[in-house]
């Protein structure tokens, strides 16, 4: 067994952090910007977290969709998010903006884990790019969960996410979380709550694919501050904060 040491500030970092109206970005040390890369050579100004960018590139290449799917907006600084929100209020009004543009420091785009995409059919709307449920865009959706991406704001979940249906907005949460969320029809808000049913000192969530067994559990910040957390030696693992009150730990074991 091995004992992990936690930096409690990491509660605000990781692929599964929840950023919305109720849970704003807390870090002010430019942590997210440190891991950014361009999504591709043709769009050097559009940035993503380097792991998310790598997975997106592999997905686009798998679909041979380089000329059919365009990145519209990735990472945004706080100042850019403020400007986008202000411009949308001026151009579209408050009601529209509240539906489709997150408040500054409440936007996933500031984490580098979110990407807006458009079907390449000429010009596109920056706020609401066209990304239909057909053709190459639908193929992208079907494959996205295998590369760690979810459609973040699905239809029928507006009351949970606080954002209108956005077919173009995808969020990197990592695998296998993306597939579990898809299979259970859960938004990130719902998934964060669901995982709390599987505490460190209790039954863990298990997910199987053709190659690995994944074991997932939640550990509260309060628990970690008072107790050591041990994991099996030589087992790959990932840790993500939830941006609220704890950490989600994922173990990957060969079947």
Automatic annotation (TrEMBL):
Annotated Gene3D superfamilies: 3.30.1380.10, 3.30.200.180
Entry-linked InterPro entries: DD-CPase-like (IPR052179), VanY-like_core_dom (IPR003709), Zn_M74/Hedgehog-like (IPR009045)
SUPFAM superfamilies (UniProt xref): Hedgehog/DD-peptidase
Keywords linked to the UniProt accession: Carboxypeptidase, Hydrolase, Protease
GO biological process, one term: proteolysis
Any GO MF annotation of the entry: carboxypeptidase activity
Record keyword Protease present: yes
Record domain D-alanyl-D-alanine carboxypeptidase-like core: where: 47-174
Pfam families on file: VanY (PF02557)
The keyword Repressor appears for this protein: no
Name the UniProt record assigns to this protein: D-alanyl-D-alanine carboxypeptidase family protein
Originating species: Anaerocolumna sedimenticola
């Amino acid at each position: 067994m091995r004992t992990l040491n936690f930096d409690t500030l990491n509660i605000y970092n990781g692929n599964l952090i929840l950023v919305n109206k109720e849970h704003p970005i807390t870090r002010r040390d430019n942590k997210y910007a440190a891991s950014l890369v361009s999504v591709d050579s043709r769009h050097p100004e559009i940035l993503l977290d380097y792991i998310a960018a790598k997975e997106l590139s592999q997905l686009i290449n798998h679909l041979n969709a380089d000329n059919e799917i365009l990145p519209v907006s990735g990472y945004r600084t706080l100042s850019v998010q403020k400007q986008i929100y202000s411009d949308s209020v001026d151009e579209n009004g408050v009601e529209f903006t509240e539906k489709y543009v997150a408040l500054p420091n409440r936007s996933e785009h500031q984490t580098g884990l979110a990407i807006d995409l458009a079907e390449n059919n000429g010009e596109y709307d920056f706020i609401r790019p066209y990304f239909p449920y057909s053709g190459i865009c639908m193929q992208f959706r079907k494959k996205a969960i295998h590369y760690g991406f979810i459609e973040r704001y699905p239809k029928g979940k507006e009351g949970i996410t606080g954002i209108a249906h956005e077919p173009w907005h995808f969020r990197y949460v990592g695998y296998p979380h993306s597939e579990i969320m898809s299979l259970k029809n859960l938004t990130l808000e719902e998934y964060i709550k669901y995982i709390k049913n599987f505490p460190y000192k209790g039954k863990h969530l298990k997910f199987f694919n053709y190659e690995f067994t994944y074991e997932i559990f939640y550990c509260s910040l309060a628990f970690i501050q008072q107790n050591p957390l041990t994991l099996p030696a030589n087992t790959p693992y990932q840790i993500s904060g939830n941006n609220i009150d704890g950490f989600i730990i994922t173990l990957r074991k060969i079947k």
